[in-house]
Amino acid sequence: MSFTQQTHHGVTFHTADAFTAAGGVAHGFATRLGGVSTGPYAQLNLGITRPDERAAVRENYHRFCAAIGVDETRLVMTHQVHEDGIRVATAADVLPDLLDPIDYRVDGLVTNTPGLALTIYYADCIPVLLYDPVGKAIAAVHSGWRGTSLGIAPKAVAKMTALYGTRPEDVLAAIGPGIGPCCFETHDDIPTALEDRLGPAVRPFCHPLEQAAGKFTVDLKGIIAWELRQAGLAEEHIDTLPLCTACHPELYWSHRKMGDQRGNHAAMIALEG
């Protein structure tokens, strides 16, 4: 598996080649390029809670949805809280207006309803899209370090299995752009929390910094890929986009580097048909 960076109608985004090859699904991971927002939100801010111009955010959604081929009137979005809640998305979750407040708090969505575009947000935390091309089910999860420690990605696979009969060995996983170990430096509290929940197998993904006592780098994408393998996904069905959101300000916003003066990216996935 690999990813393709492409530009449609001026909007630049990433797609997972295995999803494209399997067919039956529209999806994309946004960059910051191709929208109309200005200032710290330039260009393609898709964060509905950012203090951006509402008209600009609407236009950004219009452009991104058109570029990746999803229906902008059938979005199911998340109000993320860095936990492991996963909601079963239905047509009732589509808001009358995409900027209306969301009355549930989750970091993941699953569905087998064609046309619903599951939408998650990121600006360092890791976006993960899951696709069962055999059973026709999808999931989207936002996996920061807390969500990763709670196993939100494998929990989404388990929910797909319980609800839709998905076999883990059929699932394709795309781990999108997010902060890499090059830039995710922490004190020992995060590696300790990860190991407390996930066990010593996560140690190879947490490296002590020789030049800074008590500090570590953490490879969240590597841990998520390991979690998915433990959940039964085939290694060849898991692909990770290596680009780091903190290293590439020309493509991405980074909460760690920019704080609140930034926009948000979105990742979307929708079953066709």
Structural summary, described in words:
The protein is of the alpha+beta class and 273 residues long. The chain has one domain: CNF1/YfiH-like putative cysteine hydrolases. The protein contains 7 helices and 15 strands. It has a 6-stranded mixed beta sheet with strand order 1-2-3-15-7-4. The model has no long low-confidence stretch (mean pLDDT 96).
Name its key features.
alpha+beta; CNF1/YfiH-like putative cysteine hydrolases; 6-stranded mixed β-sheet; 7 helices; 23% helix; 26% strand
Tally of strands: 15
Query: How large, in whole angstroms, is the Cα Rg?
Result: 17 Å
Distance between termini? 24 Å
Unreliable stretches covering 5 or more consecutive residues: none
Count of separate structural domains: 1
Biggest pleated-sheet summary: 6 strands, mixed
In the CATH hierarchy, what is the superfamily? CNF1/YfiH-like putative cysteine hydrolases
CATH topology: CNF1/YfiH-like putative cysteine hydrolases
Helix-residue proportion: 10-25%
Silhouette: globular
Strand-and-helix sequence, N→C? EEHEHEEEEEEHHEEHEEHEHE
Strand order of the largest sheet: 1-2-3-15-7-4
Give the amount of beta strand, in percent. 25-35%
Output the CATH class name: Alpha Beta
Helix count, per DSSP? 7
Q: Average the pLDDT over all residues and give the rounded result.
A: 96
CATH architecture classification name: 4-Layer Sandwich
Structural class: alpha+beta
How do the strands and helices of this protein lay out in sequence?
Layout: E1 3-8, E2 11-16, H1 17-22, E3 25-30, H2 54-68, E4 75-76, E5 86-88, E6 108-111, E7 117-122, E8 126-132, E9 137-143, H3 145-149, H4 152-164, E10 172-175, E11 185-187, H5 189-198, E12 206-208, E13 215-218, H6 220-230, E14 238-240, H7 255-258, E15 265-271
Parallel strand pairs: 4-7, 5-6, 10-14
Antiparallel strand pairs: 1-2, 2-3, 3-15, 6-9, 7-15, 8-9, 8-10, 11-13, 12-13
